[in-house]
Amino acid sequence: MDVTLLGTGAPAGLPRPDCPCAACAAAQGEDTRAATALLVDGALLLDLTPGAAFAAARAGHSLAGVRQVLLSHPHDGPAVEVPAGLPQPGRVPDGRELALLTGHRVRAVALDAPGTGYAVTGPDGRRLLYVPPGGAPAGLEAPAEPYDLVLADVVGRPDALARLRAVGAAGPTTDVVAVHLDHDVPPGRELARRLAAAGARAVPDGTTLAVGSYEDVPDVPRRTLVLGGARSGKSVEAERRLESFPDVLYVATGGSRGGDTEWAARVGAHRERRPGTWRTAETCDLVPLLKDEGPPLLIDCLSLWLTDAMDAVGAWDDAEWADGGERALRDRVRELTEAVRTTRRTLVAVSNEVGSGIVPATASGRRYRDELGRLNAAFAAECEQVLLVVAGQALVLRG
């Protein structure tokens, strides 16, 4: 079964008409995208968009063989003209299956938003799932047979991919292609980087995919360290890397700090951003978590872990520091990094980068700055990918 992507963009396309944003300004050449529409084996058209016949011709195909046109979501704006010779578009009721004379079977998948997803099985037995913009499959049951190809709104609804992964409908061999791409993410390298972190990819309009063929999609890094200054966006970047995976354990090392309303507001803002399926553990005892089997870990952050560790060894007192405190801290850091080295879990950790600013005025401040620099360097050495976030922009240092 072959699928030609006549478009891969959001319903308004990319760039959006009359939009002055930086992402739209940068969407040129292969980064321009028409509204998403799929041509399956020249016989089935999923979503009819303006200029579909011209898009097919540019991709070296014709719509003359299309026997069924299905719509997946409500279309705003004026009605799209149906090209001569095409059947009138329709929609399959949720849960129902449509059998085509070409040997394709199409099952309608219920969503948690207006619209319909379509699971298509080709005559060769290959399976694809197409999810419309802004939607995620609802009522999935485990275990599910993995699809060969998933085309979904990975940027706008990463939880859709997480739901599919949770029941096994998206597995290690599933080719995940992002469609309905909008101006939320700058096109080009930044889009590719973010999708790779989710185990997905994007392709230009007009691309034909052979469903079930091997695609060299970058493996999701198993261990990642995200560095950045205050309000740099490092926590958002870390959370974004795991939002397309189910059952993430968020490890908060800062505690509740009873009575500190400003800190409580910060913690509340973090909680609001997290997917509802994530669990939270408030602890600085990281080594047992790293040694255990389980779902991905997001540790936020190592800076507060270090504060707790330095408190425990008396690092703020010069005499205690000299009389075994420094050695005890080195042992704790070594134990942590060794656990990172041997962990089997997917791990994303956040830490502050404080060594580039003003030299602290106190000896204890300088000691903390130095020890955090050493911890970051030791932790980074055990990670496949290291990022530095500056002004909300992620710079890849490794991986």
Provide a brief overview of the structure:
Helix 8 (302-312) packs across helix 10 (363-380). The chain has 10 helices and 18 strands.
Descriptive notes:
The chain is an alpha/beta fold and 399 residues long. Helices cover 28% and strands 20% of the residues. It is built from ten helices and 18 strands. The protein has helices at residues 22-26, 52-58, 158-167, 189-197, 234-240, 261-273, 286-291, 302-312, 318-342, 363-380, and strands at 2-7, 37-40, 44-46, 68-70, 97-99, 105-109, 117-121, 127-130, 149-152, 175-178, 208-210, 223-228, 249-252, 279-282, 297-300, 347-352, 385-390, 393-398. The strands form three sheets. The protein has a seven-stranded mixed sheet, with helices on both faces. The protein has a six-stranded mixed sheet with strand order 5-6-7-8-9-10, with no helix packed on it. Strand 6 (105-109) and strand 7 (117-121) form a beta hairpin. Helix 8 packs across helix 10. The protein starts with a strand and ends with a strand. The model has no long low-confidence stretch (mean pLDDT 92).
Q: Any descriptors?
A:
10 helices; alpha/beta; 399 residues; six-stranded mixed beta sheet; 20% strand; seven-stranded mixed beta sheet
Q: Give the strand order, joined by hyphens, for the main sheet.
A: 14-13-15-16-12-17-18
Number of strand elements: 18
Q: Identify the overall geometry.
A: elongated
Radius of gyration: 25 Å
String of helices and strands: EHEEHEEEEEEHEHEEHEHEHEHHEHEE
Write down the overall mean pLDDT: 92
The number of helical elements comes to 10
Amount of helix: 25-40%
Quaternary structure annotation = single chain
The end-to-end span amounts to 34 Å
Major sheet size, sense and barrel closure: 7 strands, mixed
SS content category: alpha/beta
Strand content: 15-25%
Low-confidence stretches: none
